[in-house]
Structures are given as structure tokens and as C-alpha cells.
Amino acid sequence: MRRFAWFVIPVVAATVALGAQAPRRGAAPKAVPAAPPFSIVQATIPEMRAAMEQGRVTSRELVVQSLVRIATYEERLNAVMTVNPHAIEEAEARDRERREGHIRGPLHGIPIALKDNIQTTEMPTTGGALAFRGLIPPHEATLAKNLEDAGAIIIAKTVLTELANWVAGGPMPMPGNYSALGGYGMNPYDPRPDPRQGRDDGRPALGTGGSSSGIGTAASFWAANVGTETSGSILSPSNQNMLVGIKPTVGRISRYGVIPITADQDTAGPMARTVTDAAIMLGVLESAAPDPNDPATKTCAPPPNRDYTAFLKPDGLRGARIGIPRAFFYTQTKVPGRDRETGGLGKEEAALMEEAIAVLKAQGAVIVDPADIPSILETDPAKNFLSWGMCSGVNGAKGRDANCSVVLKYGMKRDFNKWLESLGAAAPVKTLTDLRIFNLTHTEANAIKYGQSNLDISDEMDVTADRQRYLADRAKDIELAGTNGIDAVMKANNLDALLFPGPRGASIAAKPGYPTVIVPFGLVPNAPTPPFPAGFDAKPEPFGVSFTGMACTEPKLVELAYAFEQATKRRVPPPLQ
């Protein structure tokens, strides 16, 4: 297991010592009222920016505070895979540029973290996999360069579920935010390990929500972070860490230099403590023009000046038409061919969602309820979204995959091998097969604690021979989730968005590549099955609401999310001591 952050404490101590100023001999004390020191804890990006503009804080001081914060809480939270050893030096350079009147962009001098599947050339990019320990790619991701061009200090790489959670499915699924190199990430809202027998292997009692760690952003280690999502890995960790997350339209942000699962569904996106911060981040992450290294970046045109803050309107809900997809997402639903109903919400979650709907009405939104998704109600199993899952684990292997989509397992074979090829001589392994062999020969080093069933079912795919099956399944994904799914209900009811509980709509929006913005809203009991043992005082679990739309509707979704956030302001910081 890694410990790349070992140098943080001595660096901070030396920095603070070097920054101290001794009083000059003979200098008379001045009776100047001391301004309260600026703190990064829960500070927004505009607040950091204003403090630097007013001379109340420097970028160097922001970075030092971040390093102190990491040093204080990292052992409890395990949010960090690697800390940038040049972070202070880069912050000092941003301060010099500021003094010279040169401001790079809206993140000038502000510390930001990246998920450790996003390529950087000053820190390793590992995906959490033992085979990629210490890998320095030959080029950085397009989105990393966009951040740097906007003045951001990429201060750290975050822990993640190994290879974005495409290593181990059934029979022993990998826990969220676990990797061979990073271990288990812990949720700052209850940073304790699970005490239940059979689950007491170090995993958190309160899940962190998926492969894009929001831990450090929730705990104010940095201003915001960048995650990636194939099906839920921005929305779920944002929900679990009480953050705003924007899962963009696939292609809105370049994926060049990001370790893939499948180009059909992969996207990067911002995770932050406010809608304003997430909107600023989205504009920075999006390129001004299509990236020649990612053809999907032609899908959506950026707003003028890539400025999503223009859509931060407190009255943005007035007149907006918002649909409530009750069936399955709110209430239990019969799935054709199954004996029991599925889906639905617990009573506390349901109460929160009714409260959220009441807020929308009070803010002038037009609520269409129900606005059920046709493919959820479909009685023909061949046309029902809930009857058509994603092939995963040993039950998704060839010969068992007639009733599930091969898109992810096929895409992983195709796109992961292309990514390895892009590394050239730096690639520690050359193919997905090589990675699986490496893992099998390094089991004693915990390379595959939970197995590698998802890598196995991907590697058995033949990119040429299985292409027709992949194309058919991709078309069915689009039909059930898009054409007869989100598209159908939104067009029939002239909707601006669908309102989903927490991240529950992630899977259906992921297949056609549609955008979602999630906003913190409340806390619900953490009451898993099987239950925690008597005497274990489980802390409440964050729960948010999601606004989902069709392709390229991020401006409208940001507007709705911001108006909802301003009307509620329900986010509370984690109770760290």
C-alpha cells in the first residue's frame, strides 16, 4: 500500500518556519488592527480568489494550509494517493505572476485535486493498480493542461476504486474507493471502518460512494476535485460526501489522457462544495475548441467564454418544467419476468424528496408528477430497461451474457489497449492480457484482493469478432435509456429536467451520455443490511437531489441546481475534530 504523502508534515513545518518574519531591531510597534486570517476550510473558489486579489492571502499560503489540512486528517481519511512535490514552488510562481499583473484564469493560484486515473507528468498516474505504481506518463491529460492554463495548482491525486471500478465484479465485488495501491478511502461524515463480520477488512462503515473520491474536497483539503464517471462515479461520491457534482454530456470534456473503461460512456467532471465552484470548474475543464485527440468533443458547443457562471440565477426555477420519474426511482415497480417488485425509496429518503419537490413548487417550478420513463414501465422484457443490465463479473462472461449489455466489457478491451499503446515505452504492461498476468503473479502483494472478474470478461472479448454484438448492444442501450427512456418522457412533457433521488438516475443517464447535476440536500440514517452490531452508533448518511437532462443541457441544469441550492442551502461540513 502506498504512502506518497509522507513528506507533507516536514514540508509544512519547514514552510511555516521559513515564512516567519523576525521583527526589526528598533522598529516601533504599529497599532494596526489584525485582520482575521483567511482559512481555506469550507472556503469557496470566489472567496479564495477575492482574498488573493485583496492581498489577504497568497497562493502559497493557500497551498500551505492545504498541506497542513492533509497532514492533520490524512491518516483518518486516506483521501490522497500522491501529493505534488512542487505544489509550493508552483504557488509561488502564481504569486509572482499576480504581482506582475498576469492572471491566468479563474483558478489562478487555487489548489485542485485530480482522480488518479487522470494523467499528469509531475505526479504518477496509477489508477490505483499495482502494475502502474510510479508510472509517469509521457503526456498530461487535456483537462490537466486546461486547469494549469487557468492557473490552478494541481496539488494532489486522489484515491479511487482501482481502474475506476472495472477490476472485480461478482462473485467478490471490489468495495468502493478501494485499490491495491491506495487501500480504503474513508468517509469524513463517519471515518470509521465497518465492524460487521465478513466486512471488517478495513472498508468504511459509511461508503464513500464510488471511484471518484470526494473525500478531500468535503474535508477542505483543496478547493475542488475532478472525478470521472462511466456509470455513477461522479454522482455517487458527490452524494455520499455532500458535494455538488456535475456529470457532463459525454464529449463535453476531453478524455484524452484519462485511463478509460469505454469511450461510449466515460467522462470527467467537477466535484465541489457549491454549485458556483462546480460551474467555474466546468468552464475551465471544457476546452475552447474540440480536442483533436478526442472526436467526441465536437458533441456540444461551449457557452460564450466557457462561462457557466452566467447561468447562476437565483430565480432559475421559475417556470421550469421538472418531471418526477416515480416508477422504480421513487416507488417500487414490477419488472417483467420477476416475482418481486424492485426499486423505490426508504421512508426517510422519500420524505426528503417530497420536501425537495415542495421547494421546487415554492420557487415557481412546474412539476409534472408522475413523469415516468416509458422503458421502465414496458411490459415486454426485451424492451424494459430494468431487464437489461450491464454484463459484469463471472455471470457476465461469454455464454452467460445473452441478457446484458457487453458495451462496458467490450469497450474496456478496445480502449484500455489503445490507452496502453499511447504510453509508448513508459507502459509497464502492453495489453490487458499482460495486466491480468501481472496481477496473477503478484497476488501475494495484494494485486487483486477481490479478484479480477471484470478484467477477465473484458479480455475474453474479441474486438473484431465481437463487434457486431457490441454494436447491437450499444444500439439497445441508447434505445432503452435514451430514445424510449429519458428522451421520450422529456419530449412528451416538454421538460427542462428530471428530478432523481440522490444518484439513482446515474445508470439510465450514463448509457446515452446525458448530463446530471447533483446538489446536497439532507441526511438519512445509515442502516445497511445486515445491520451494524449493537452499540455501533452509525452516523447519518448524506443524500442529495439530481437534475438530469438531455445532451448538452448543462447550462439549464446548472441554472436549476443553483436556484435549488440557494433556496435550501442544506450542505453541512463533515464533523471532523
Short summary:
The protein is an alpha/beta fold and 577 residues long. 31% of the residues lie in helices and 12% in strands. It has a single domain (47-568), classed as Alpha-Beta Complex (Amidase signature (AS) enzymes), CATH 3.90.1300.10.
Task: Walk me through this protein's architecture.
The chain is α/β, with parallel strands linked by helices. It has one domain: Alpha-Beta Complex (Amidase signature (AS) enzymes). It contains 16 helices and 17 strands. The protein is globular. The N terminus is likely disordered.
Chain-wise SSE layout:
Elements: H1 8-19, H2 45-53, H3 59-77, E1 80-83, H4 87-99, E2 111-115, H5 142-149, E3 153-158, E4 178-179, E5 183-184, H6 215-218, E6 224-229, H7 235-240, E7 244-247, E8 267-272, H8 275-285, E9 321-323, E10 333-334, E11 341-342, H9 347-362, E12 366-368, H10 374-377, E13 389-390, E14 404-405, H11 407-422, H12 432-441, H13 453-459, H14 467-492, E15 497-501, H15 506-510, E16 516-524, E17 541-548, H16 554-568
Parallel strand pairs: 2-3, 2-6, 9-12, 9-15, 13-14
Antiparallel strand pairs: 1-3, 4-5, 6-8, 7-8, 7-16, 10-11, 15-17, 16-17
Helix pairs in contact: 1-3, 3-4, 11-13
